[in-house]
Fold this protein.
Amino acid sequence: MKQPINVYIISGFLGSGKTTVLKKLVEECNTRGQKLGIILNELGDTNVENHLFDKEQMYELLNGCICCSIQEDLKTTLDQFVKNPVDILLIEGTGVANPNEIIEALSSPLYIDQFNLQSVISLVDASNYLDYQSIFSSSKEVRTLLKEQITSASFIILNKTDLVSEKKLDKIHTQIKKLVHEEIPIVSASYGDVSTSELLMERVRTINLTDKQVSACGCSVDSSCNHDHVNHASIKAVKLEDIPLFDKKVFEKWLKGLPENVFRGKGIVHFHKDPNLYSFQFASKKLALEEVNSKGLKPIIILIGNGIDSDAIKESYEQTFLHLT
């Protein structure tokens, strides 16, 4: 089985310095001799920075935001990388993209085994952050978007710190820390100057909770594991396979009883006394089911969240379903 493609998402509001960091990553990957893929997204019909990456396997997604109006274009582009794999895929969203939507696409049943999300790098413009948070100089939409970009990150770069005073920098840092888990790194920088080892560190893991050969942190039970088993902050998705037939009401009750930090569920399931397979979507404590063609599909559950306790999810799943079979 071929190795999944390692993916890094670069997020941040308009003018925060995303392209500078992207260039840094491209240079490092080329130095390492890694085959690189890039997805660039622009709201308009022209990307004025594409010439910076014309030697790479690059796809431009124009005239829309990768997280909403051109979701299907993103999936089509991901399909191209499935057919023509690379070692590293870098995805830069627009300045108004919500990274959670990109995370969800990569975590869908179709792509979760094809792509391995390594990190969501979010840049914050220190020189404008306090203005963006002000109800007098900003809008609710901007404040909400900034919060989404920060809370979905596994690594935060507080950029352009050379343009603000130490007092303001401390205030910004304090505000951001209130929004994220204590284990999420917040690094101060100017001109996106962050070490490539920090940028390319694996900070997100997808864990298969039903693989008996894998421990809760994602390591082989036979390997020497030096991961911190207490820290679950970096986990963005957990995967359940080889799932049994469910009672529909029990399944819905189980989903609604999951912790609040599990903000999304999706996958393929089958129920007792029903020959059909169903695609399910779960968000805001609501379950939606749609019958799907069973050809080539296998039941799978994917849960997405921030700070998910994988051990607790596994225990809940087993007590609810496996003890009934």
About this structure: Confidence is low (pLDDT under 50) at residues 213-235. The chain is about 25% helix and 25% strand.
